Amino acid sequence: MREESNMNLLFEPRSIAVVGASSKPGKIGFSVVRNLKQGGFKGKIYPINPQGGEILGEQVYGSVKDIPGDVDVASIIVPAKLAFDAVKECADKGVKHIQIITSGFSEVGEVELEHKIVDYAKSKGSRVLGPNIFGVFSAASDFNSTFSATEIARGHVAILTQSGALGIAMIGKTAVNNIGLSAIVSIGNKADIDEADCLEYVVKSDLTKVILMYVEGVKGGERFIEALKEATKVKPVVVLKSGRSKRGAEAAASHTGSLAGADEITDAVLKQCGALRAESLQEAFNWCKFLSNAPEPKGSRGVIVTNGGGIGVMATDACEKYGVELYDDQAVLKEVFAPATPEFGSLKNPIDITGGANSAAYDLALSAPAVSDKMDSTMALYCETATFDSENLAPMIRNTYKKHMETGTPVVYAIVGGSAVENAIVELNRENVPVYADPYDAISCMGALYRHHDFNKTRDDSISESKIDLGAIEKVIDKALADGRTFLLANEGQDVMRAAGIMIPGAEIAKSIEDAVKHAENIGYPVVMKVVSRDILHKSDAGGVALNIENKDEVLDAYEAIMRNCKAYKEDAVIDGIEVCEMVKKGTEIIIGARKDPQMGPIVMAGMGGIYVEVMKDVAFRSAALNKGEALKMISETRSYALLLGARGEDQKDIDVVVDTIIKTATIIRKVPRISDIEINPIVVYEKGNGVKAVDVRILITK
Ligand code: ACO
């Protein structure tokens, strides 16, 4: 069960104790008190320092114990060796949230000290933020408990950052970019409070229109995913996730892991949650700023208006890259844009009003989509020309932007040129008009807006689960662990498949020649027959295998031949019987896998299977908390999906059963804690209605 928390008090406390407050400018203990005072915090500030006195007019207490009233938040700014005692005093006092600014814990190997602190705090009902953080800011309560050197500009973006230094830098950078913050919180080592907890507050905060998260590593993937899904339902969440390294994947024990460049998993899961993953800081800032001001597009029909063909082509490419659809009704485009376009211009989207266009022509052309009920978004481009009255560039943009805002139509501008153009960009950005120097930057913002709203229009966070016989699976695992194994044998893997209802090739052990015929007829020809004997390890060498048996006579012959061969091979071999197995027919070979990702939790994977899995790397990933629709989306992302649809005149394959098998595999990985990896490869898929056969199953287990 998730621990109940009141994150509101961390961001909007009524009082704060600053343990390690200092009267010496330049020290963190001084900066925090100064920022609290300068930021206009209305609650009580209790500086704590054994030396007593006053700091910036506030009475200093010798200890948290001496504070007369309740304390909602304490900020710990004493050296690491003093941190436990400081936290203990706060927890004993009943402080609700303890932010530990101090460094020198798990990030430098001092894991035990960190655990000791958190365990004590939790035992008293206190939550811990950090350690190794720069503090918390919340515009709603004018609460600046950070040691930021610059003032924090107020606005509508909330930042959750794992990196302290980058977070502090972002405070400065957001101010320069005129991106105001509603909140910023540094999460640091995440010994207790993590992104999921902080999302709880910023999602509810009315001041926050967009959330920006900087994430290095995720702890508790399932909770993170759940919180992220809840957040993206309410507002856009931009994520900067660093650490694209493949090292984690190299260490993984199965194909699922080896294919799972951890970053591909992150990417897939973030998309599945509806988060917008930015490539760079600049892209993240551009998106945040745009998304906090842009209206929701009424539909998908975008129009590009340009005075230059080249930049129009670039923008068209960018629209494809970022998923912005272009409106194509020629008759309407002609009617709307002809008044602003000379004969030699183009009335096909992109609309080219040509290099001769002046501000009046632009005004005319750009005002049209703002009021048209046929077009839903505008991408306005301008290349500097001598014919344009450049003093009117900024006013034209301001005016047409206003018209778009009045009708709730999103618009972005990309303007390219010399210093006059660059100055206009700076000037307009200060006013939050979305003007960029590159069409890709502009359209990347429009794409992010569409992705957020489109995702929410069709989102379905339900989780499909299938019935599995957990008891049977647990028994198989118990037995394997008792044998000292961390992997399952082939027949044990098949038992797990059976317990989950995943179709496997039929097989029965015959104790007599009559049995063999009966089993072969039950399974259906052709069949394979194999000797079962613990004394014969290499069955083929002993002549203990017969393939492609087509009828009863061949079963009789094969049975006798196998018995004869094996006796000749090893006279005293104990023969337990002869296994009669279904001879798996040819079909489309796919792979379905699942694993517990150290960061994202249970994940599933599916794609092209067979022996070339690793060469082709044609697989897709998802969090295992998925439904059938998402499972279908996952396989349809792979190139080999075309084979399932039926390539080169073949019939469509049993995609419904593939989807079911993904859900069954996802259910196993979610519901069986001791299974860490599952790989079914190949799983052969037959024509629609004929299902699949899981031919080879590998399962890793843990204690
Ligand atoms: N209760 C209250 N105050 C105390 C106590 C106590 N039990 N014991 C000592 N103090 C006082 C000290 O007397 C001192 O006050 P003074 O300035 O009046 O003398 C004050 O607490 C601080 O103690 P110092 O020993 O002077 O410690 P200092 O300020 O040098 O360092 C700090 C403390 C800042 C916590 C340091 O140990 C540290 O961890 N620095 C790194 C912080 C950091 O970067 N965090 C990550 C942020 S994110 C990022 O990377 C930007």
Written description of the protein model:
The chain is an alpha/beta fold and 703 residues long. The protein is built from 25 helices and 29 strands. Strands 9-8-11-10-12-13-14 form a seven-stranded mixed β-sheet, sandwiched between helices. Strands 24, 25, 26, 27, 28 and 29 form a six-stranded antiparallel β-sheet that branches. Strands 2-1-5-6-7 form a five-stranded parallel β-sheet, with helices on both faces. Strand 10 (154-161), helix 5 (164-176) and strand 11 (181-186) form a beta-alpha-beta unit. Helix 11 (281-293) packs across helix 17 (439-458), helix 12 runs parallel beside helix 17 (439-458) and helix 18 packs antiparallel against helix 19. The radius of gyration is 32 Å and the shape is flat. The model is unreliable at 248-260 (pLDDT under 50).
Oligomer: single chain
Bound molecules: acetyl coenzyme *A
Major β-sheet profile:
7 strands, mixed
Arrangement of strands in the largest sheet: 9-8-11-10-12-13-14
Radius of gyration: 32 Å
Poorly predicted residue ranges: 248-260
- Average pLDDT, all residues: 92
Distance between the termini: 22 Å
Count the strands?
29
* Shape, per Cα inertia axes: flat
Secondary-structure-based class equals: alpha/beta
How many individual helices?
A: 25
Strand content range: 15-25%
